[in-house]
Amino acid sequence: MADHYVSDELRGFILKRIDSVAQIEALLLIRSNPRSQWNAARLARRLYIGEPEAAEALSRLCASELLTCTDEVYRLEGVPEQNLKLIEQLLGVYSRHLIPITNLVHSKPRRIGSFADAFKFRKGS
């Protein structure tokens, strides 16, 4: 169980702000080369995922104030200091205890609403 490796503060951070392992991997890549130009296409190639999935991960990280975005270029620069500290903590624990962290991420309830929205009828459809 992740309890042995994850502080309560970090657990709350993961449960509140991290929706997927792809998001953690995106943070790892961007942190590893912060001066680089990161966009959805480049991230998708590096993570071996589809560009829509990469764009979704990056978008959610921005919405959670874990990345900033200017002209579709994503970076850590400008992220609140407290979030940067928790990102560093997360990445440190993740690098040593991958399975417990991924289990914690996967234990979160899924965002069913967005799936259900795909079946709503809209005017003009």
Description:
The chain has 125 residues and is mainly α. It has a single domain, classed as Winged helix-like DNA-binding domain superfamily/Winged helix DNA-binding domain (Arc Repressor Mutant, subunit A, Orthogonal Bundle), CATH 1.10.10. It contains 7 helices and 2 strands. The chain has a two-stranded antiparallel sheet with strand order 1-2. It starts with 7 loop residues before the first helix and ends in an 8-residue tail after the last helix. It comes from Bradyrhizobium amphicarpaeae.
Give the SSE map:
Elements: H1 8-17, H2 21-32, H3 40-47, H4 51-63, E1 68-70, E2 73-75, H5 81-96, H6 98-106, H7 112-117
Antiparallel strand pairs: 1-2
| End-to-end distance | 47 Å
Biggest sheet descriptor? 2 strands, antiparallel
CATH fourth-tier homologous superfamily: Winged helix-like DNA-binding domain superfamily/Winged helix DNA-binding domain
Strand sequence of the main sheet, in spatial order? Answer: 1-2
Coarse structural class: mainly alpha
The CATH class, by name, is: Mainly Alpha
The counted number of beta strands is 2
How many domains in all?
A: 1
Radius of gyration: 15 Å
Protein name: MarR family transcriptional regulator
Organism: Bradyrhizobium amphicarpaeae
